[in-house]
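Our consortium's second objective concerns turning raw sequence data into structural hypotheses that experimental partners can test. To show how far this objective has progressed, the report includes one record in full. It was chosen at random from the queue rather than selected for favorable results. The single chain below, 485 residues long, was entered without modification.
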Amino acid sequence: MSIPVVAIVGRPNVGKSSLFNSLVGRRTSIVEPTPGVTRDRVSSICDFDEKLFFELVDTGGFGIVDRDDLTDHVVRQIRFAIERATLILFLVDARDGLTPLDRATAEWLRPHHDRVRLIANKVDEPHMADAIGEFARLGFGEPLAASAVTGLGRSTLRDLLTLSLASLESDAPDDPVMKLAIVGKRNAGKSSFINAIAGEERVIVSEVPGTTRDSIDVRLSRDGRTFVAIDTAGVRKKSRLADDIEFFAQTRVRESIHRADVALFLLDSTVPAGQVDKNLAQILADEHKPFIFVVNKWDLAKGKAGTEEYGEYLTKIFPQVAFAPVAFTSAKSGRNIQSAIDVAMSLFKQSRTRVGTGQLNAAMQHALQEKGPSSKRGRTPPKFYYATQVSVQPPTIVVFVNRPESVTQDYERFLLKRFREHLPFAEVPLRLVFRPRRSADAEGKPKRAVSDPGASRKESRTRRGAAASPRRRTRGKSSVAGAGR
């Protein structure tokens, strides 16, 4: 199963961001008394005693009238958070009492009744818990009394989350149908590509850029395998968005990427990759979404460049996603379409793979022996204890260290690369989370740090100001779907 998602929903100014920060354990979401500060979804990985891991999502206030006319955008973000949430925390304000907007929010959440838990926030004094019974009229049972500021009810809330997530996950079906998003800038051939997969005209195909303004789901079967293809609007620069319809079309592209299992990133072989393509690649990276570079219209580029040269070009333009495979296709002729789908199925399988703790820690041991972590500002390098995979889609690995804030971005990138090499995740993004180790083992002693044999000598040299010389290893690019990278 993917990591469970808990969304905090409610009208403006009921303390959603404060509760978010309280559960996360650090100030991540903006806390401001002005209604409507949180527009987009803010999320963070949380853990309870290194056992229960989940993604907590803060949302904008339901019913806000946004001063920049982005109310519809805020509502879409809330709706999207609700649709993908494993559990919904419906937050109300104990001090204000039951309001009409609370009732409106409750009606909005009614179709998701089984996933909703009602929380009465701002019960800053124990005696205030006697006055929250009126919220039971909302139809979600008796509310749990809590205070994000004082911490009242925090342990009860943790128990509620633990029990609710366990029961909801056990009842959730594991749907094996792959959702495949077709993304790219305007006129890259996305709709033609879907029609080539389907073998018939299932969506509009037009030479006029921007025909598809909304995301369209097409259920397809090919060689006995069923999947859902998501056609999306073409992406272009924000400065060139003609109207509100196009603005929301761009927003829906990101939403489609988020709900997809794998993406096909279409590039027009006759046009150089530009800033729009780079932005789209960054979105895919930020969403930890497996994807394939699909170089479309390859028949028109014949004689101009070879597949190996173009693969090297993509590595140079998109270094942050150099692990993504490449397919060279022609939607009009159908060339390599099946090959691209086969690779997408392979990525889908990789993203759903789970490895054992022993195999994972052996990979981390190899990485530490090759290159130990460096220090920030002359401090002692962080010590790594152990790693565990907590979810799939994307494969999420939690690494326990003594000081997470001391792990540099360079070392995080190095560790990700080595995990990808030593584990069955060669072509999919990994989500790496560093956490401090708070609990002890059965004997009450902290687990011994996993490090290379020369770690103590390295630390000593670091304190004396000497820098250790890391060993670097290069790795050749493999060919996927007719391409070398």
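The partners drew two points from this record. The longest strand covers residues 384-391. Residues 154-171 form the longest helix (18 residues). Both points have been shared with the crystallography group to help prioritize constructs.
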